[in-house]
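Narrative of activities, Objective 1.

The group set out to show that a structural description can be obtained from nothing but a protein's sequence at a throughput compatible with the screening campaign. Below is one input-output pair from the validation batch, recorded exactly as produced.
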Amino acid sequence: MNQPYQLAIFDFDGTLADTFGFFTSTHDIIARRHGFAELDISRLDEYRGLTPRELMRRQGVPMWKLPFIARDFVSLMADVAQEVRLFDGIAAELRALAAAGVRLAIVTSNSSDNVRRVLGNELVSLLSHVEAGAGLFGKKRRLERVVSTLRAGRDETIYIGDQTIDADAARAAGVAFGAVHWGYATPALLASVSPAVTFEAVTGLRRIAAGAGAPRPAV
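Output recorded for this entry:
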């Protein structure tokens, strides 16, 4: 067993908050607004097996439109944020990690207001830092900022997320990546990026405080 991680940085959508239903319900509204393909609901499992870049190509989403699309998703979520729920057990795991002395942070492309509405005041009070509004492919810089701001060692930091782009950002920032199996991407797709730690169930997150039994990334 390795030494415990001292800093756990979490993605938000699909990792802490169950926003897949919101994503599918609003996708077509935004698709019509920005001129890309609507979802075929019968192929949701197939979509989950694609990386974000592959899904963008499939749906005909140009990279330059991403900031505008993200802005609309965030804005629409603000209207229903009180209805968005955390995955079952997330609150208990965050409390357990904080009680064990692990510092907690968030790096997300969502807004800080949405994060705070969904988490609530008690859980927000457990966080050392919230880095919101990151571009879909711009989380590396945000991760580096959190590590620097909190004066954390990169070899003692883990970023927990549900998509391959979270893995890419973690590796580029020199921190470990923990993959969760309850979010957007399929377990098979996440396995293809060789996460340092895999969390099959929410209740496994407290293993972060025990080192999770995984090797650290090379920095």
